[in-house]
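Worked example

This section walks through a single chain of length 372. The input is the sequence exactly as stored; nothing has been trimmed or padded.
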Amino acid sequence: MNTNRKGTVLVVDDQERNIQVVGTTLSAEGYEVMAASSGEQALSRIAARCPDLVLLDVYMPEIDGFQVCERLRAEPLTSQLPIIFLSAADEKDIIVRALGCGGVDYITKPFNRAELLARVKAHLELKFARDEREKLIREREVFISMMAHDLKNPLGGARFSTQMLVERADELPEAARRLAETADEGVGRALDLIGNFLADAEAASIEQHLHLRAIDLAKACDEAAARHRPQAADKGIELVWESTGGGTAAGGDEAALGRVLDNLIGNAVKFSPAGTRVWLELDPGRRAITVRDEGPGFTETDRVHLYECFMRLSAKPTGGETSTGLGLSVVKRLTEAMGGGVELLDDGRAGAAFTVTLPAADLAGADSTPAG
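Given that input, the structure is written out below as tokens.
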């Protein structure tokens, strides 16, 4: 963290004299000061250049400090911006309202210079520490993802070689054949693990950048069924989906719903034996999508740990695939991030059935604010 950086503070007050006093105090301590004389001007200046902290007057004409704070909290880019209220009013209910709408602190006028500087310094240090932590997390995620991508290339080459050996196993001595099969299985598992890690990282990125709007559930099911029919056919499994013709609206994110359906359908195919069916069903009235299979289902112990990350359950893949226990945890995370829910049905039928339900939306409606 750059300990030499003081930070930029936006001072918002409809009284020019107050801006001058606070601005002079901060400038003398090395802070860069921005100024705004109204709520609208403050929002405009923050949109053009976001400061590190805002000192915000409570009572201003047209848009007061409470409204400014609420609008900043509603935007992803300013939802964590520290806001300290400055006001001559020291009534308890006003202070409670200021903190309740998103302020991190409250200072009464006329302020004590040492107190003002101490609180500004403390909240800026907290802000910079949070920024540094988030930067380190992002850098770590990028590094790990790069390592995973880089590992795929040599492992992919090794997998090609082991598969060629396995295909020509009849020409090899018995011991060499067993070694080739073991090597092929090990490399395959490593590639699957890397693939699942990258898929989980992609899901996390989707979750952080959700764009919630009206989406067509039938269209999402059409696309998901098309993606998974080849995989199902290779295993001798029939994927059953009958389109409702489109027009079933729900609130959500297309990429997130696609990932949810990929995990549910992919799991159903992975754990189902040949000669069975997997159903993809849409209930337009409930805005619910159900994925049902004829696999082994879940034990009582499985149900306790169903959505835990990296939890391997009792069922085993039927085609030699690997399972890292990430799929259902991703389904739950993304579905709930869209404002919906996921449920394991218990209707007495064989196999497993998961239903994902999303909130109502209008396909003709406007997009909502992206989630932060």
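What to look for: The mean pLDDT is 84.
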